[in-house]
Amino acid sequence: MSYDQELLRRAIGLAATARDKGEPPFGSLLAGPDGTVLAEEHNTSIGDRDITAHPELKLARWAARELDPATAAATTMYTSCQPCGMCAGAIARSGLGRVVYALSGEQLASLQPPGTGFTEAPAEGPALFDEARVPVEGYYT
């Protein structure tokens, strides 16, 4: 869209604001179909002492609370960096229509010193299907 770069630059500006405030340098905004900014956020994970305080997650939560599904589907999130897995999941569940990002996750990793990334915890499962299905069975029908 004609205003994609302008809104992406605004998201990058929010990332700079986050860094100026001592927070991780990430910023995002949510825009309607005409480019009107509906909400904007920057990372506050240090100040909030909350590892989930990513701007993309905060905006996805806001959209799920404040927008009806049709309006959410017509929005675009502009973000300074490709959403992490946690944020991508929230974006999908909130029903946002589109995401436009500046840095890819791979590009971000190239800007970080070696060994500063996150390691995944080992996961085991599935297990106890017959027990675990009881509270879930029939919920989605």
Number of helices: 6
CATH class membership: Alpha Beta
CATH superfamily label: Cytidine Deaminase, domain 2
Whole-number total of structural domains: 1
CATH architecture: 3-Layer(aba) Sandwich
The low-pLDDT segments are none
Average pLDDT, rounded to a whole number, is 95
How much is the radius of gyration in Å? 17 Å
Q: Share of helix among residues?
A: 25-40%
Descriptive account of the structure:
This protein has one domain: 3-Layer(aba) Sandwich (Cytidine Deaminase, domain 2), CATH 3.40.140.10. The chain is built from 6 helices and 4 strands. It is globular, with a radius of gyration of 17 Å. By secondary structure, it is an alpha+beta fold. The model has no long low-confidence stretch (mean pLDDT 95). Strands 2-1-3-4 form a 4-stranded mixed beta sheet, with helices on both faces. Strand 3, helix 4 and strand 4 form a beta-alpha-beta unit.
